[in-house]
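Minutes, project check-in
Item: structure for the 261-residue chain
Input as provided by the requester:
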Amino acid sequence: MAIITEEVGDIFSAPPNSILIHACNARGAWGSGVAVAFKQKYPYAFRQHQAYCLSSPTGSKLSVKQHQASLVGTALLIPPPTATNQRQASKTPHYIACLFTSLDYGKRVSPPEEIVENTRKALENLAKQVAEMRAAGEEVGKCCPVRINSGRFGVEWQKTKAVLEAGGLVITVVRPEAEQKADGAGTAAGGQSPVKDENEKAKGEKCAVGTNARRSNRWTSGRTKAKGPFEKQTRGVKRKVEKDFEDGDDGREDMKGERLA
């Protein structure tokens, strides 16, 4: 059983080379919830993710929709920016792991039981990629997810946590301070499940992952080299993607919780 710990802080202040993990749909959209914060903090990662989802590999006979369906239950591990872009590399020295736990989003999101099973498969895929990178001598840090699946996907956190515990990765779950306070207040007031509170908050509250969380003094930024199996995953994938992709999610928010046009 894997060791799972939880900390309160800002996930974006994780040590250099850490793997920041979040759950994604396979349509190439980061349009709501914590994905918006990731999109604003790591625009290069969003572009890589979008291209990966919206273009079938060169030579593949799969349609785009068939390609997207094949991604469910897998993980895309995006390395930090290369050393050619030192400014960006020093600001965002993290790997971004996208777990494809639902094919779609919004009203078409997969059922909770499917999301849980897809999470199990995606974590196995991610663990394999991480093991290969470490075996090759690449510097890969700690694995830091948010409480994946428990926001817009509406899955009870304890079910996803059980999958994490059964996996092969040592994981540190990072929660924003505002979320912890809200959970504590809800439990003290009526003994309600934190997951229920979080699902209600997801409908309109601010996404506090990037701005309201307490920064840990242990976590510092740094530079890193872009390595890993990402090139294998994206080999042959067309890179032509529209500049401004509209995901059709009317509930989009920015990192401060403001609704986007």
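Outcome recorded: The chain has nine helices and six strands.
No further action items on this chain.
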